[in-house]
Amino acid sequence: TGILGVLDDLEKNNFNRFLFRLQNGSEEPRVRATEVEDKSREDIAKLLVSRCTGAGAVPRTITTLRHIGCNEEAQELGESC
């Protein structure tokens, strides 16, 4: 499935919560509001891969999904990568 597939499957409310958590979480690297504002799910997937040095993008996405209560999606991503 990959990062984009999981982001595509998120309901709008959960996607917005995911973006909020990316901006306000304690994980590094930090993501600024201007980097996610009005961005598509594809743009966010690209941002995660570029900012989290590729291999770090999946764990960062899984952690963020778990923080917003999307545990099934986090597990799905973990199993697919």
Automatic annotation (TrEMBL):
UniProt-listed InterPro entries: DAPIN (IPR004020), DEATH-like_dom_sf (IPR011029)
Cleavable signal peptide: none
Pfam families given in the database record: PYRIN
Top-level taxon: Eukaryota
Location of the Pyrin domain: 1-81
Name of the protein described by the UniProt record: Pyrin domain-containing protein
Provenance organism: Periophthalmus magnuspinnatus
Upper classification of the organism: Eukaryota, Metazoa, Chordata, Craniata, Vertebrata
